Amino acid sequence: MVELQLNAQRGSFHLQINCTLSAPWTVIFGPSGAGKSTLLRLIAGLEIPDSGRIVLDGKVITDTRGRVQLLPGPLSSQRGVGLVAQQPALFPHQTVSANVAYGLAHLAQLDQQTRRQRVTAMLELVGAAQLANRSPRALSGGEAQRVSLARALAPMPSLLLLDEPLSALDAGARDQILTRLQTWLADQKIQTILVTHDAADALATEAEVALLQEGTLAALGPASHVLAAERIRLLTRLRAR
Amino acid sequence: MDWQALLLTLKLATITTAILLLLAIPLAAWLALTTSRLRAPIQALTSLPLVLPPTVLGFYLLVLLGPLTPIGRIIASLLGHPLAFSFAGLVVGSVIYSLPFAVQPIVAGFSAIDSSLTDAARLLGASPLRLARTILVPLAARSILAAAILSFLHTLGEFGVVLMLGGDIPGSTRTLSIVLFNQVEGFDYTAANRTAAMLLIFCVVALIAVYARPQTLFGGTNASPAATGDRNG
After folding, report:
1. Are residues A6 and A39 in contact, defined by beta-carbon separation less than 8 angstroms?
2. 10 Å Cβ neighbour count for A216?
3. Which value does ipTM take for this structure?
4. What average pLDDT values come out for chain A (241 residues) when binned by 10 residues?
5. What are phi and psi of A90, to 5 degrees?
6. What is the fold of B3-230?
7. pLDDT tens digits along B144-201
8. Which of A84, B106, B120, B192 has its CA 20 to 30 A from that of B226?
């Protein structure tokens, strides 16, 4: 469960969020410029809010009044939040396997064999096992996004943030991976927040939907309720075709 | 040819370059990544030797490291002799004088690395040390190599700081540029020509090495289009 009380001014843009996200899978939906990516960066600890507090499963990870700002990372002393951005940002001088293993190096409880098994399992989960020894330079955009997803999953964070992580894949491949991913994340009890500006993506999942507009939360609830207007708009467009 | 001065000059440039790389890499990483208000004054301070006349720098170091200051007295009691007019003093002076030539290319190299890569490493729990060791240094290897070559060449040719701080002691502080100065002062233009040509050849060869270095050493500074997802597929 994530409790958010955030205020952040970025130029003329003001983000103000007060909510609790408790569903295992939440979709943050909103138009470009609504503040979705800023919100994820604040939760991940890559940015600090002007004021506010973030509590993850009872652990305060940001509190501007108490001067708490846990560092990003998967360790218990860190935030325990993973983020997959739209840009895969793979380390170009390391192989795909080394990229996926990067976040496991700090986890002292894992021996070498367990790490290797974890890397293989994560690559298989995202359908990228055949890419293990490749260089990121040799990957297509879609392949790079799959590897980036596997890299964020490998340390098994408490909270996974997905910022349009599979945008370079076609709809069929994206749905296939998301379905497999949802099952795996539910099994591992990893709470997930997915950002999208595509109403069809938001409606495709049986998730809680947070509607973000101009930096504020306009609605929070089941997709069928929050996105009723978007659903009608999509259906009208389909019928017109 | 004064082989003793040549060897001393090469030894000074090698030791100075090694020390500079050890200092410049962490300093440049901090300058490239920090949002601290101290960044601007620290960067200005490290750049000061670029604009300060070498004789001014040499004079202040001579005073600071001499027996009249507490620092100078402490160093003299530890080493058994004052730093001024010694090879160790020359190393200290050279490190300070060449600091911007080491720091600035490395800062530029680190700053050119896509911030999404450093963000990704931080999100995966990398400490600042691991971030520098596994991401910054390999991706900025070309800039670090350039910094090493520039620092070496700059030390090779320094004159003002060396003369002010070290004087002209054969085998201890007499470098090639001091030898050249002495040869010109003694109207021995044939010998001066040989010494100057030696320094010129060193510099030209090393600069060719900087500009002709492999463009893909460790993959350059930025992620490829595929690694950042610019290609579809």
Report:
1. yes
2. 15
3. 0.87
4. 91 90 88 88 93 92 90 84 92 95 85 91 93 93 93 93 84 83 90 83 75 87 76 70 66
5. -75, 145
6. MetI-like fold (1.10.3720)
7. 998 999 999 999 888 888 888 888 888 888 998 999 999 999 999 999 999 999 889 9
8. B106
Closest chain A CA to residue B221:
A92
C-alpha B213/C-alpha B208 separation (Å) is 8
Q: Does B124 touch chain A (CB under 8 A)?
A: yes
Q: What is the mean pLDDT of residues B86-105?
A: 92
**B233: pLDDT confidence band, cut at 50, 70 and 90?**
very low
> For strand A2-10 and strand A51-56, is the pairing parallel, antiparallel, or unpaired?
antiparallel
> In chain B, which among 88-117 make CB contacts under 8 A with chain A?
114, 116-117
The amino acid occupying position A107 is L
d(C-alpha B121, C-alpha B56), whole Å: 43
Chain A positions with Cβ closer than 8 Å to B = 44, 46, 71-75, 78, 81-83, 85-93, 102-103, 105-106, 136-145, 148, 151-152, 155, 168
Question: Around A46, how many Cα atoms within 13 Å sit in the side-chain half-sphere?
Answer: 22
CB atoms B227 and A105 under 8 Å: no
Exposed / middle / buried, residue B50 (Cβ in 10 Å: 0-12, 13-18, 19+):
exposed
Cβ <8 Å between A89 and B114: yes
Tell me which residue of A198, A79, A69, A94 sits closest to A151, measured CA to CA.
A94
Give me the residue spans of the domains in chain B: 3-230
Summarize the confidence of residues B70-79 as an average pLDDT. 84
pTM of the entire predicted model: 0.81
Contact (Cβ atoms closer than 8 angstroms) between residue B121 and residue A91: yes
Q: Say which residues have a Cβ less than 8 Å from residue B143's Cβ, sequence separation at least 6.
A: B105, B106, B108, B109, B110, B112, B221
Sign, Cα dihedral of A189, A191, A194, A199: positive
Annotate B100-148 with three-state secondary structure. HHHHHHHHHHHHCCCHHHHHHHHHCCCCHHHHHHHHHHHHCHHHHHHHH
